[in-house]
Amino acid sequence: MATVSSAGPATGVERDVVLTVEGLTIVLDPSGRNIDDEVSLFIRQGEVLGLVGESASGKTTAATSLLDYQRRGAKISGGEVTIDGRDVLAMGPDELRTIRGGVISYVPQDSSASLNPALRIGTQLMEILEAHSFGGSQADREARLKEMMAEVLLPSDRDFLRRYPHQLSGGQQQRVAIAMAFANRPKVIVLDEPTTALDVTTQAHVLDTIRDLTKRYGVAALYVTHDLAVVANLADRIAVMYAGRIVEIGTKEELFEAGQHPYTRKLLSSIPDITGERALVGIPGWAPRPGQRPPGCAFAPRCTWAIEKCSEEYPPVEGPTDLHRVRCWRWKEVGAQTAETDVVLRDKSLDACDTPEKTVISVRDLVAFYQHKETLHDITTTLCERRCLSLVGESGSGKTTLARCIAGLHPHKIEGDIEFMGKPLARDARDRPRSTRQAIQYIFQSPYSSLNPRKTIRQILAAPLKVFFDLSRDEMEARMEKALEQVALDASLLNRYPDQLSGGERQRVAIARGLAAEPTVLVCDEVTSWLDVSVQAAIIDLLADLQREMGLSMLFVTHNLALVRSISQEVAVMNEGRIVEHGVVDAVLEDPQADYTKKLLSDTPTV
Amino acid sequence: MSTEITVNDSELVEAPGAHSARRHSEWVMTIREAWRMGRTKVGIAIFAAIVALAVVGPWVAPYSPTEFVGRPFSPPSSTAVLGTDYIGRDVLTRVLYGGRTVITLALAATVIGLGLGVTLGLITGYARRWVDETIMRILDVVLAFPQIVLALLFVSIVGPKLWLIVLMVGIGHAPRIARVARAATLEVAQRDFVRAAEAFGISRLKIIFSEILPSTTSPLLVEFGLRLTYSIGLIAALSFLGFGMQPPAADWGLMINENRIGITVQPWPVFMPVLLIGILTIGTNLIADGMGRALIGIERDTGGG
Question: What pTM does this model have?
């Protein structure tokens, strides 16, 4: 490379580098397919490196390999991991046991699953100190335990330490997991999406804690995530992974302001923008899984910059500086474009709704119970024709319950009125007339659960057609093909099973199934929360288009306030079973009235 | 919105390579996948060998099963390869004749048990509430009787009829199978595709048999193998106790009972039936296990890891 490093002489860098990974390659055993390839990175003391990638990019596999741990079926086939000059991959089982949880520690994604439900948290925290003989005496360890709890902002009184994991909230559990990770003052800490399962407000607090602790104790942290917005607020440097390789690594500013890899650029523009200035632009296609990766650059099939060379040969490590590295044949051209040119401005004319308001669904004084507990209180709202209303709230806010009440899927008692086209709706979908069941279609959160794995796409799409229409075989086939076409899928998928499709394709099939019923109202329950951001953007765009073209009324349930602008005209913010704010999207997001909305807005991470 | 992403063309063009559209029914695919596993091949080989022995046996047997060929409990010789039993009949001949009944009865009993148990399990698991409670408590009562006692109770009243044995062994299996089917149903019934079917207004019976049942087949198939194993043992045990086949019929269970007094002198008439019953159960278990694994799709090629 021509450019001379601006980060000072190599020795200066070496001095405080704690962790280095060189050419780490992990394969599936026995097939030998690559999960990770030539992963190289380093982290300095007190630095947070964000490892960003979509599903199946190999980020978690790479991260756990730093502790020399591989999930079943994976095997490290080459490379080096050194912590403070010691080669981790060369260590025997005994030595590994002493460094794990000591020198290097790990915070898993789901702490509720990683804490032992049968042990009190005090016992579990003490265990990790004892396992590494922290301090000289029991008194030392007890003092450290108190200190740890203070560090993660949890009470350290006896009552609290005697609780079991299920008696803590999700955020508290994750704090306990973080306390365990920091317990023995490690040099390196690996955080594997520790906030994915948390609400935004809790996430904001946990991120603060992590930031504070890594800086205070000079820990080198690797933060694995799929969410660029999260690392934007936390990491010093960012490594972007795609299909098992690091495609770009550099400081946060370098990547966000002058990304040299097309994938980095595209990933940034597929993040929903809470300010609503930028349009949501997805990346066509999906990330290939191990074994399906094309030759050459794996991103080439989805890349608008791709040239012939890209699909033949994998680009070498290059980059504008020694520390800002990129793997793309055309990085200079990509980098020469200013980041602003990527930005597609959102077409705000779509926000306006000039059709006369005609109420399709109205909910009045709705009270819903879960068994005997009241979970929704006095909900009153309306959904107008050809409009999209977003229901926003954190988990437990009752947004899904409300959506299910409307769709006739709430299995418990409800009081109050739900009207569809002026007629009251029965609680249970079965008790509703066929025309109503047909008119209101519900799209479920997880496309992995909403499609019967034992049925082909043809059988899945046939279900609504058989119930709602009396069609001949050919007509059915034509309708199914049309439904797939509407969601931009090919009719050749009809013979496939859901497990042969990607997550994004599955969600499209689920939407197609809803559309096949020819509904007037579409209820979408967190339909993108299981999808990668780049795929999410494409699904949101699809739904927005469908809603406009088919004149659907849509209820869009989400926890992500940033998505609201891209799809809806109205928004209702929910908290603890009540609608706390209701209005036109721009008004609510720009001038929130309720304290809760303000808090939600300030806690939502942005790029 | 922007035109850039209206169609995900590359999703179509770049369809995962490993996916050739499956035109065969899932059963065929499952059996094929099961066949690819070593355990299934071994299981099928064992099962086929024993069944072949039981079916073909009578034609290749050197003697009639009731013919006296020597002195009681005489050791293996050139006239009787495995020696003679307690009244001097040829052991080899009786072993070759004795498998048919136990295999047929065991299969019939298992099918009855499975049909009954699965139906009850699906209904209770999907219906919940009072239907679930009522049926499950009744099954608990049945479950309170050890299977063999339950069978003996009725057989001793009505008499050793073969249909009764099959029925009672089947009924004895039903509560256990129902519990497995119910557990599987509870798990499947809360998945969203069942809710989707409910939202469409598809009838309950159709949801049970067309949406839920196919997803519960894997534990049930394993259960079938396991119950077949138990049926073989149970029916052999009933014969052993004198409630199954009646002398002078040749039957493995009966043979063990008749000849156990002479086990120290002439072990073959006891050892051979025990060995064959043992091998048969291992075979059925291996098949069940292989099918179970194939159905869950552990080794199905989704192109992923």
Answer: 0.76
Chain A residue closest to B218 (CA)?
A454
Digit-coded pLDDT (tens) for B45-91: 999 999 999 899 888 888 888 888 888 888 888 888 888 888 889 99
DSSP labels for A25-78?
EEEETTT--EEEEEEEEEEETT-EEEEE--TTSSHHHHHHHTTT---TTEEEEE
ipTM associated with this complex: 0.75
Question: Among A186, A217, A46, which residue's Cα sits nearest to residue A103?
Answer: A186
In 3D, which of B244, B233, B237, B252 has the Cα closest to residue B54? B252
Per DSSP bridges, beta strands A388-392 and A414-420 are: unpaired
Tokens representing residue A346 in the block? 């959102």
Size of interface A-B (CB pairs under 8 A): 148
Who's near B5: CB < 8 A, 6+ residues apart?
Answer: A281, A282, A283, A284, A537, A538, A541
Domain(s) labelled CATH 1.10.3720.10 in chain B stretch across 100-249
What is the predicted pLDDT for the residue at A4? 38
Least CB–CB distance from A463: residue in B5, B15, B200: B200
**Full strand arrangement of the beta sheet holding A34-44:** A34-44, A17-28, A74-83, A86-87
Confirm if B200 and A467 have CB atoms less than 8 A apart. Answer: yes
Give backbone dihedrals phi and psi of A205, rounded to 5 degrees, phi first. -70, -45
SS3 state of residue A188? strand
Note whether A455 contacts B: Cβ–Cβ < 8 A: yes
Cross-chain CB nearest to B16 (options A292, A347, A432) = A292
Q: What SS3 state is found at A249?
A: strand
Q: Which two tokens stand for residue B202?
A: 């598809």
A469 contact B CB<8A? no
Cα–Cα distance, B234 to B238 (Å, whole number): 6
Residue type, position A331, single letter:
W
DSSP codes of every residue in A221-241:
EEEEES-HHHHHHH-SEEEEE
- Report the pLDDT value the prediction gives residue B174, as an integer from 0 to 100: 92
- Determine whether domain B100-249 maps to CATH 3.40.190.80: no
Domains of chain A: 259-346 (no CATH), 358-599 (3.40.50.300)
The secondary structure of A311-345 as a DSSP string is GTSPPPPB-SSSSSEE--TTHHHHHHS-GGGGPPB
- Per the omega criterion (within 30 degrees of 0), is the bond before A288 cis? no
Q: A500–B302: do the CB atoms touch at under 8 Å? A: yes
DSSP β-ladder status, A325-326 and A245-251: antiparallel
A497–chain B Cβ distance below 8 A for any pair = yes
User: How many helices (DSSP H) and strands (DSSP E) are in chain A?
Assistant: 23, 21
Alpha-carbon distance A227 to nearest alpha carbon in chain B (angstroms): 21
Which chain A residue lies closest to B197 (C-alpha atoms)?
A: A463
Q: Give the best residue of B3, B7, B8 to mutate against chain A (max A CB count within 10 A).
A: B8
